[in-house]
Structures
1.
Amino acid sequence: KFSQGRVNSRAQTVLKGIMGSVHKLLFEIVHKGILPRGHQRHIDSIRDMGLMNALECKECIDWPTLIIKHFARIVDPQLGSHQLAFGNLLTRVFNAFEVPLGEGRVLTRADMFTQAILADCGIPMESDQVANSSPRSSGPVAQLLRKLKVVEEKYVTLELENQNLRAELHTSNAEIHGLKNQLVQQQLANNARVDRVLDMLASASTKPSQSST
């Protein structure tokens, strides 16, 4: 049904790529909303297919029970690491149990709960219970990134200096070319003056001989 007849009827999984458009949409609803997960989001398991079939047939789904069972599976270390699901519902849960929520601080997936971040959120912690800074800012990767940034800045500086030197070299070559042209013109002018002097000397030496005859 979900693979459009492209896999064996006994198959326990179906790839998302061979589903029809409607079933792809149902699969997105299942693995992103009903039972969210951070891995194998292109593989439709038999559990996913059951939920998709219930949605397609407009059958009721006991979502709270599914959430509890899904959480139990997520926190089980024997099943491997999983992402914490249903983060979009935490605010509603906190409000339902009257958990005081302050202004806090907006975090991203890349952030880590450090002592400073917890203090901003109004949660005091002992210094030995939480890291002072995130590994993203003090770990070896962060150090390498800082070194890379320094090298990139040096490269940019050297590249600018190289461009300036090239511009100066181009200007110097133009000046040298102009001086060469001036030198050639001066040499031609000097040769012309020498030729005129020689002509004058030649004409002066021939006049006395003509007068003596």
2.
Amino acid sequence: MADNRKYYYLKLKENFFDSDSIVLLEDMKDGILYSNILLKLYLKSLKNGGKLQLDEHIPYTAQMIATLTRHQIGTVERALEIFRQLGLVEQLDSGAFYMTDIELMIGQSSTEAERKRAARLENKALLPPWTKGGHLSDIRPPEIEIELEKEIEIEKEREGETGHPAPAAYGRYNNVILTDTELSGLKTELPDKWEYYIDRLSCHIASTGKQYHSHAATIYKWAQEDAAKGKAAPKQGIPDYSCKEGESL
């Protein structure tokens, strides 16, 4: 079953610990403890938009924060006062503490599939490119980071528009695009052959550059033609990726 819960994560810039407020904070007596408390409070406030509260009616008290962060109450009280002085925390009229910079640090993900897509894109980017000298470069340029973010945002928009996870890429060359429903249908109707046909189509697209209106429909078409000719898809070994010239939908 798909995991459609919403997850939140903390986005910190690489120079977070070099900022003036954090450097001053950690330079104090017990400053490392205060820094640890601050990070835990950021995490605790994510799902409430920066507010530290148990639910929409009950704000966290210093004692509750001490319990949740596993620090002494005195340490937490001193930390909160220092956070206020540094402008890291404000106390709202409701009594709730508000983490002032949290809006710049909140990231969220709506599905397990989205996180997997992000991981897949990240793994692709980790493959180092060949340089002109024939050596592999282990440096990932910032342009790739930008493209990764763009691809993730595009897929998130697609998911938001349809209410369903965006199609994913499959096959040896990650160029066979199928929705979850299409993939499930292939597994059901071609239980021993679906992987073969996905790889066959993947290699065919990669070698010929052809484009198809529907990759799932193309696979069904090939399977029907093979069945009509009495040609069984191999279950192991090197698959046969041959097809008629001009095959398309």
